[in-house]
Q: What sequence folds into this?
């Protein structure tokens, strides 16, 4: 399954991946496509067997704060939206930790990892023993090898409590720790804690994955103790690199011998309507996790260019184009204007050396404007270390300006990498109307990134071309290469 990894109509952000038995489960928020708000009043669960991570099953509603046609409310104390949850197993029971907007967080239980979950209690604590006024923003829970239980949480401040393992919701007196990850304003934006706590124990090292103040990143910190202190190590992925960025939230999961980072990315040219994605990662002997790029791969090693490819799995969208939903069955890349770039990583074109050319067919919605689609492969590699150093210096300068001026901070999402597509292999001429447009391109073998660069096809700088400035050329629906 390519990214996004769930059916393309499903919006599950804030994914907490957990392996229970021989299946991987995703617990997350539930967004509504085209909505102007985060999250919904229900939580859903999807799972897949470790042996086939392309075979996802929906387990339906597992918890909700408002009744609907088929379900009663799961809680007695609120009807607010449900945000990022977590689920852990303890002594054969599965515990769901819910973050409810503006209301006390709660703990629920089930005999099965897929739920449904039955309300147990809100957290029980003395006022001095909990942060977030009992809301427990974005709770992430760790059941340690010795049976102790810890909950990490917070918005703009990193908190942790130890929980009573007998109840799983009573806070142990005196256990509150603040600044589990450094959240002081002078810390660089790419390291400073913001939200989305997710703990993991890997070997003897404790990890906390979180969203830093630069919100398109998923950062991580490590410690040799579950109670910290945690030291920021870097970031794993950035969903704003050459893509309309937004907040990020997710975590690590090992399936078989492979580690993955689960995260989400935006659609509909907003920070809402987020969909679940995944990338392979490595955890090195020193505990570090090298940064990975955003791809279209999901759980695949590579994609086939000879099967119809939905345009919406693009992992590169530059120049103002974005994915939007026309209806339940059709999502397109829209607002394609002159210079826009739409990219996919990675396709395996095989080893056919018998021909010099192949055919490409693209299906578009026409906008009454002729144009061209330049077809390119690979790209100029961005100097990653140089870019990260530049971003770090810019972040520190920005922080210093904010601190000295006493200004409120703004979360930053965009992180364009300045990367450029590489070798052109052909051009497809586009007509005025809806249809399938075909053209010959150079034959390609092996594994490559693929890019389409839109061109309105008019002379640059001519007085007539100014009338077409900003004109939408087309919407891209799907494409396929033909032999």
A:
């Amino acid at each position: 399954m390519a990214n996004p990894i769930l059916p393309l109509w499903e919006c599950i952000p804030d994914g907490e991946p957990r392996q229970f038995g021989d299946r991987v489960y995703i617990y997350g928020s539930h967004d509504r496509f085209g909505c102007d708000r985060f999250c919904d009043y229900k939580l859903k669960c999807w799972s897949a067997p470790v042996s086939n991570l392309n075979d996802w099953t929906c387990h339906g509603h597992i918890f909700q704060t408002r009744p609907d046609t088929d379900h009663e409310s799961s809680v007695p104390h609120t009807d607010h939206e449900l945000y990022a949850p977590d689920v852990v197993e303890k002594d054969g029971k599965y515990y769901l930790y819910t973050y409810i907007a503006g209301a006390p967080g709660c703990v629920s239980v089930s005999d099965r990892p897929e739920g449904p979950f039955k309300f147990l209690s809100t957290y029980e604590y003395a006022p001095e023993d909990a942060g977030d006024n009992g809301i427990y923003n974005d709770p992430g829970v760790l059941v340690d090898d010795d049976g102790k239980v810890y909950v990490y949480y917070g918005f703009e401040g990193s908190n942790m409590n130890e929980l009573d393992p007998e109840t799983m919701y009573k806070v142990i007196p005196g256990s509150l720790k603040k600044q589990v990850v450094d959240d002081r304003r002078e810390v660089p934006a790419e390291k400073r804690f913001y939200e989305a706590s997710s703990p993991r124990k890997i070997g003897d090292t404790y990890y906390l994955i979180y969203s830093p103040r630069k919100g398109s990143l998923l950062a991580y910190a490590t410690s040799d103790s579950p109670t910290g202190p945690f030291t920021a190590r870097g970031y794993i992925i950035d969903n704003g690199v050459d893509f309309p960025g937004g907040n990020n939230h997710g975590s690590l999961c090992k399936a078989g011998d492979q580690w993955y980072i689960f995260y989400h990315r935006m659609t509909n040219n907003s920070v809402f309507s987020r969909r679940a994605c995944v990338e392979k990662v490595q955890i090195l002997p020193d505990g570090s996790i090298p940064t990975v790029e955003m791809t279209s791969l999901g759980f695949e090693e590579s994609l086939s260019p000879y099967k119809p490819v939905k345009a919406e799995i693009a992992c590169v969208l530059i120049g103002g184009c974005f994915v939007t939903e026309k209806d339940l069955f059709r999502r397109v890349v829209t607002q394609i204007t002159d210079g826009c770039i739409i990219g996919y990583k990675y396709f395996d074109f095989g080893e056919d050396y018998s021909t010099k050319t192949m055919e490409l067919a693209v299906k578009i919605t026409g906008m009454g404007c002729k144009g061209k689609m330049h077809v390119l492969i690979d790209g100029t590699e961005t100097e990653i270390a140089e870019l990260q150093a530049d971003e770090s210096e810019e972040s520190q300068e920005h922080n210093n300006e904010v601190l000295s001026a006493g200004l409120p901070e703004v979360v930053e999402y965009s992180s364009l990498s300045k990367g450029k597509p590489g070798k052109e292999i052909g051009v497809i001429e586009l007509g005025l109307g809806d249809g399938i447009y075909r053209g010959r391109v150079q034959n390609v073998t092996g594994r490559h990134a693929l890019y389409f660069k839109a061109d309105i096809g008019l002379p640059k700088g001519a007085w007539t071309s100014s009338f077409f400035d900003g004109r939408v050329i087309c919407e891209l629906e799907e494409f396929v290469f033909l032999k």
